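Need the bound structure for coenzyme A, inputs here:
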Amino acid sequence: MNDLAALALRDGTCVPVRGIRADDAAALQRLVERSSERSIHLRFFGPLRELSEESARHFADVDGEARFALVALDPDDPDEIVAVVRYEREGETGGAEYAALVEDRFQGRGLGIGLTRRLIEAARENGIGRLHAMVLRENTGMLNLLRSLDLPERKHWRDGAEHIEIDLQPGAAA
Ligand SMILES: CC(C)(COP(=O)(O)OP(=O)(O)OC[C@H]1O[C@@H](n2cnc3c(N)ncnc32)[C@H](O)[C@@H]1OP(=O)(O)O)[C@@H](O)C(=O)NCCC(=O)NCCS
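Answer from helper R.:
Posting the output first, comments after.
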């Protein structure tokens, strides 16, 4: 998905959405800089003063199949990324790790769920059968978001986090 699409938030705000591009690395660093300590802790499981150039380049560099990410742009400033959702295939397991970060001022407005639904469409088209999310127990927003997808999920607790597997092809032959 390289073309610009629009996603309507619950309050009616229209947010441009597109696939991530290699030249988004600096905007990803700025998104992390603007994010609160709490959001960074929930996303990266610890403090992070800044996203290194190397990590930002890695996150922005996807192949659109095994590694895929969507970004939402600030409706008032299309140079700034206000949210990113991604998946990364985990070996040959048929599953992929999922992660998301929504800038604080855009949280709770339907952006995370809207982006995640679009990510899931792309993941299915790319043959991904399951998404795997690692979520801290206090992260009720993420736990609620995953539950509101209304897809079968399995949870287990390991290494201080909930590991949640979402089945993207319910009903498909095993
Ligand atoms: C977690 C995160 C990605 C969720 O994105 P978001 O845009 O804030 O969430 P959304 O508004 O799309 O949806 C989540 C909430 O809306 C609810 N919701 C979803 N669809 C809904 C609908 N159609 N109508 C009403 N409520 C709905 C969800 O149940 C959830 O409930 P909450 O009120 O307890 O938060 C975001 O808050 C974030 O980036 N947090 C910090 C980093 C982080 O936690 N990353 C995830 C690490 S795995």
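Comments: The beta strands are 5-8, 14-19, 67-74, 77-89, 95-102, 130-135, 153-158, 161-167. The chain has five helices and eight strands.
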